[in-house]
UniProtKB/TrEMBL annotation:
<feature type="transmembrane region" description="Helical">
    <location>
        <begin position="277"/>
        <end position="296"/>
    </location>
</feature>
<feature type="transmembrane region" description="Helical">
    <location>
        <begin position="38"/>
        <end position="62"/>
    </location>
</feature>
<keyword id="KW-0812">Transmembrane</keyword>
<keyword id="KW-1133">Transmembrane helix</keyword>
<feature type="transmembrane region" description="Helical">
    <location>
        <begin position="173"/>
        <end position="191"/>
    </location>
</feature>
<feature type="transmembrane region" description="Helical">
    <location>
        <begin position="247"/>
        <end position="265"/>
    </location>
</feature>
<feature type="transmembrane region" description="Helical">
    <location>
        <begin position="223"/>
        <end position="241"/>
    </location>
</feature>
<feature type="transmembrane region" description="Helical">
    <location>
        <begin position="98"/>
        <end position="121"/>
    </location>
</feature>
<protein>
    <submittedName>
        <fullName>Uncharacterized protein</fullName>
    </submittedName>
</protein>
<feature type="transmembrane region" description="Helical">
    <location>
        <begin position="197"/>
        <end position="216"/>
    </location>
</feature>
<feature type="transmembrane region" description="Helical">
    <location>
        <begin position="6"/>
        <end position="26"/>
    </location>
</feature>
<feature type="transmembrane region" description="Helical">
    <location>
        <begin position="141"/>
        <end position="161"/>
    </location>
</feature>
<feature type="transmembrane region" description="Helical">
    <location>
        <begin position="74"/>
        <end position="91"/>
    </location>
</feature>
<keyword id="KW-0472">Membrane</keyword>
Amino acid sequence: MITLSDFLLGGLLPGVLALATLSGVWKFTHNAASSWRTAVVLSFLLGMWALDARGIGVLSAISKSLRIQESKDFLTLLVILGVFPDAVAVYGKQARIIAWILRIALCVFLPWRLLAGSVYLPKPTAVPNPFNTAAWSTVEALWWLGGIAAVLVSIWGLFIAARDHAPRLRATLTALVAFAAAVTLALSGSLTYGQLMGILTATLTGCAIASSFWNLERGPDAAAGPILMAFGGALVLAHFFAELKLMYAGLLLIAFAVAGGWFFAGKKWSTPLRCAVCAILAGLVVALSGMDFIAAQG
C-alpha cells in the first residue's frame, strides 16, 4: 500500500528537487544538457536515499550504494555512469566514437550487474547446485544479456537522434510513460520497484515543468544515459525478481522509445501519432496489469 510518506519522499521530494535543480543550473550555466543531467541524477538518487532512509537513517541509506546489499542498490552506480558517454561525446569525432563504445559497454553492464549472483547468473562454485534449474546456460546468458543491451542501445540512439525535435513534448511524454510503468510495476507484484519508477516519474515531471518554463531546446535526450539506466534497470529488476511479464516490459520500452526518441521528425503527423502511440501503449499495459492484479486477488 502506498502511504503519504511514500508520496512525499518518492514523489514530491524528487519532483520539486528536479524542478529547482534544473532551473538553478540553467540560470548559472545556460547549459541545457548539464541542467538536465544534474537534475535527473541528483533528484533520482536523493529520492532513492530518502525512501531507504526510513527506519535506517540517511547515512545508512547512502552507504547502501557503497556497500551493496541487494541488486537495486546498483542503480546508484548505473545512473551516475550513465552521465559520462553523452558528456564525452561533445569533444569531437573521436570522442563520439568513444561515447558509443561506452554506451554499449554500459548497456551490457546493466543487466549483468543487476543479475549477477542471482539464480539466473549464479556465482561459479566447485560443486554445481543441481536444484538451481533456473540458471542460464552460456547461450541463454548471451541471448538475454545481449538482447537487453541491444534494446537499451537502440533506445539511447533514438533519444540522441531526437535532439532538435519537440523537446518539451518528449519530456512530457517520457514522464507519462514512466508513470504508467510505475503503476504497472506496482500492480505486477513489487511496490519496491514501482516506487523506483515513481521516483523517476517525479524526476522527469519536475524536469519537464522546468524545461517548459525556461523554454529549453533540449529534452530527455540531454540526460538519456541516466534516464535509461533508471528506467531499464527498474524493468529488468521487476521482470526477473518480481512478476512483470516480458510482454508488458516490451510494450513499456516501445512506448518509452516513442515518447523520448526520434519519431519521424519533420512530418506533420509525427506529433499526434507520437502522442497516440504513447497513450495507447501506456494505457494498454496499465489496463492489462490491472486485470492481472484483480484476477490474482480473486
